Structure formats: structure tokens, C-alpha cells
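User: Okay, second chain of the day. Same drill as before: sequence in, C-alpha cells out.
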Amino acid sequence: MLGALRGDREHVVRRAVGLFVLIAATVFASINLAALADSDRLTTAVVTVLAGSAVTLGFALAPPITASIDPLDPRRFAVVGPEPRPLAGALLLAGLLSVPVLVVLVLAITLAVAWVAQGAAVFASVVSIVLGVVTCVLLARVSMALGALVRRPRQSRELIGVYLIAVLVVVVPVGIFLGSLEWRGVVPTQLVGAAEVLAWTPVGAAWSIALAPSAGAAAGSVVVALVTVGLLALAWFGLVNRLLTTTPRPVTVRERAGLGWFAILPGSPGGAVAARSLSYWLRDRRYIVNVLVVPIAAVFSMLPLIVAGVPIELAVLLPAPIIALFLGWLPHNDLAYDSTALWMHIASGVRGVSDRLGRLVPVVLIALPLLAIAVPLAVAVHGRWSFAPALVGVCAALFLSGLGLSSIASVVAPYAVSRPGDSPFQQPQRTGSGGVMAQGLVMAGSVVAAAPALWFAWQAITSDAADAFLALWMGLGAGALVFLVGVAVGAVEFERRGTRLMEFAEAT
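Assistant: Same drill. C-alpha cells below.
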């Protein structure tokens, strides 16, 4: 901690200013949290769970996003030959002595005063603070250890882009959710529902113990928090053992500079395919046009419904599923876009699974932020956040099943497309109907796979809102099943039809 204040003058000034801002923010937050003692029990519980969950999640996400270097990296101690288990325990205890943890501890104690003022037991408050702080420390330790295993020599723009996507996927839905709430002097029911859900998750369970609505809810939160701590502890001890028993592969910045996605993704066949696909999706006009058309077409799909008299609250629910459907459908002919470059995959003996999964990475990275914006916006305009699980389930079913079916169609029924460098609006003449059949079957199959989720989503709109969770689980289950089966079948067909695929690439 003191070593962070050593170095050249600019470094010391930056650290000192940052420390001053952190102390000021901590004092400001403590004053506001202390004021919760005069509030009602429900408001205090909701603020505690939401704030605690956000802080806990921050301990997991901050290390990779900031690319911070761990001063307690287990590999620093390898030169003295320590045993993995004692070292892991010592580093875990040392992890409690850090500025972020001390800030959380101060804020948690301030909250505990408000809890006791609301009638919470002192013992329950202590248990909540201990489990909450230990969870934060373990998440930070595990996150930094994972970063030490995969750390790159520099923060490339590609890696920063991935981090921005991850932040966007989390921040935008939360921001839209909070912005749509109506604050009228009481805690909105949506926030109460969100706090109840977070109280049963690993990031929020520890913070809900003191002010749990019942003894059973408190016991359940304790169980979830203890299981979370146990699993994180096992992961930490395993990672320390891995770090001490493996030698990091030396990486030369000069040799890897300019490799783009190939320097970021794993050096495996699947990682190489994903890196190559990402380069194409972000640079080739044919891919870019397809991606840009999807959200535009989805938004314009509402206009006929609105003109026909459908209420805007219902019409706004249509674009998100359409985006999911078309994004899952986009890779249905991805092999044809490779043209003769397909020979690299076939000649190098890439396994079908590596090829199928690697090619899906770009569309997943594009779909996540688009859906993270479209779904919350649709639900906010719709006005019923209880319908959000249903919309997520429908989108998951359409997107995942589309990816699975596309993995089969692109191998079994590829059709000619515009060649590299040609206009994306220039389409070659086709002698057969295979391309039309492939497009139609992938899209129709995705809708059929999502039919159960669509049915329960409709029930959630028209009758029982509880069906929204049935739509969520049915959509996730059906989408995951079709995705796994589609990738497996597509992998087998890719290895079996390698010669035919090469003939198709040469002919088109």
C-alpha cells in the first residue's frame, strides 16, 4: 500500500489525488448511508442489496477492465518455493488489507448502524459484513489470478473494445431500468423486485441477511453466501496451485505487435478462426452492411403495426425478437463469404467444432450489446418490467437456435454470394433453389424452436405475468439445446464434406 506512493513526482501526485478523491467519496457515501437510519426498513434493505451487489460485482470486473497488476501475484513468491495451500491462505489474508477493501469495510459498518436502527440483530449484521467483505476479496483474488494466466503484454484497442462491450451490456440495461422508474417518495416496486432477486444471487446474498423479510429468507441468503465463499475459495486455491506449477509463456511485444485479434484470442484453432472471422466482420463491407440492416429493419417493422392500430406498448416488443432472429440467421452462409480462403481451414485440418464455434464469436459480440440495448428499451416503453424475463427468453431462443441451425446450413447448403471486394448489393446468379431453402429453413426452424417461449410470453402479456419466467427458462433451454445439437452436427458435416466445400469455393 505504501509502495503505491513511491516513484516519480507525477506518479505520486496522481496517486495522492486519487486517494484524496476516494476518501472524500467515502465520507460523502458514509454520511448518506448513515441517513438511512431515519428511513423505513424496506428502503434500507433495497439500498443495501442494490449497492452491495454493485460493489461486489465491481470487485470482479475492475481487475480485468483496468488491467491492474496484482502486487500479490502468487508467481512473485515462486522463487522461495512455497507450498501452494499456505501461500494461498496467506495471500487471502493479505488481500483484506487493501484500500478498496478498507473503503468497503467502512461503508459496511456505516450501513450496519442503520440496520441495527431498523431492528436488525447485531449478530446478523456482523455475519452480513463478514460474508460480504470476504466475497469481495475472493472475487478480486480470483479475477486477478485469472488475469495473470491470460494477461497480454499490452492493452490493445481490440481488448479495450471487448471491455467496452462488457460494460455496455451491464450498464445500459441498468441505466434504462433506473431511468424508467417513477420516484414518488417511496421505493418503486421494480426496485424491490430487483433487490429480492439479487438477494438470492452470489453478489447480493451476503448483503441481504441483516434485513431479510423473514427468518427463512435470511437462512437462504446465508446458505447462498456460504456456498459462494466456498466455491470462490476452492477456485482461489486451485488457481494458486496452477500459477505456481506452470511457467508463463514468454511473450515478445515486438513480435506480437500489429496482430490485432490474433494477439488477443487464445492461440488455439478455435481462437485463430475467431480472430480471422472478427477481422472480416469488422472490415468487410459485405458483413458490415448485413449488420447495419438488421436493427434498421427491426425498428421499421413496428410501423405497419402502429398504422394498423396496434398500441405502441405492444408494437415496441417486436424489434428485439427480430434483431435476435436475424442475428442468429446471419451466419447461415458464412463459409461462402470466405471464397477461396476456405482452403486454409481445410488444408490445416481444423476440427469441425473449432471452425463452427470460432465463426460464431463475431456475431455473438455484436448481438450482446444490440440486445442489451433493445430489450430494456422495449420493456421500458412497454411499461411492465415483469415482462422482461419473457422477452429475454424469446430473444435467447431465436438467437441461439438460429446460431445452431446456421452452423448446419452453412456447411450443408452453402450458396454463392458476392466475392470479396465486390459491392455487398451485387448478388451472383444462382441456378438452383438451395440458397432460398437454406435461408427459409434456418429462419423457420428458429421460430419453431422458440414457439414454447413465444406462447408463454403471449400468456404473460394477456393473462398471467408469472408465465414470464416460464418463457425465460423455456427459451433458454430450447435455444441452448438447438445450439449444441446444431454445432455438433455442423462440426461433423464440416469434417465430412471438406472436399465438396473446397470445390464449392473454387467454383463460386
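Residues 251-256 have pLDDT under 50 and may be disordered.

User: Thanks, on to the next one.
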